[in-house]
């Protein structure tokens, strides 16, 4: 599941996979109607706990918390454009719930713990310390079909604004 040049291309339908969400629901991404933004991120740490091995040496590994905070801060503007927000990582729902509470995120995080969604779309990943992590990217989806892929994400903190600007160009 390391992904390649042909992962998650615009025009691809999302796979019929249901994922648990931090709000207690399950989300079938292929069945989503309207526009959604799915912010895929590698991992979020917790204060006072160490990062995975070699985390500081992996390009793009850092930045999940500021990225999710950026989406949080712009959530109203995304909603004004009839766009649902989701986060997605390979972390467990229980781990993600703590993050949602700590950061006061107004949108659910989806757990792809078994990597079914990531594998179906051949999302790019990396490994360290014997664990696999997804590379940071964002999927803009309309009616269950990928409309745009933002990858690579070079500035996680500024990325939510980049996605919002793109939405604004659509009218």
UniProtKB/TrEMBL annotation:
CDD domains cross-referenced by the UniProt entry: PRX_BCP (cd03017)
InterPro entries for the chain: Redoxin, Thioredoxin-like_sf
Annotated ranges, domain Redoxin: 10-155
GO molecular function, one term: oxidoreductase activity
Protein name from the UniProt record: Redoxin domain-containing protein
Organism the protein comes from: Methyloceanibacter marginalis
Lineage: Bacteria, Pseudomonadati, Pseudomonadota, Alphaproteobacteria, Hyphomicrobiales
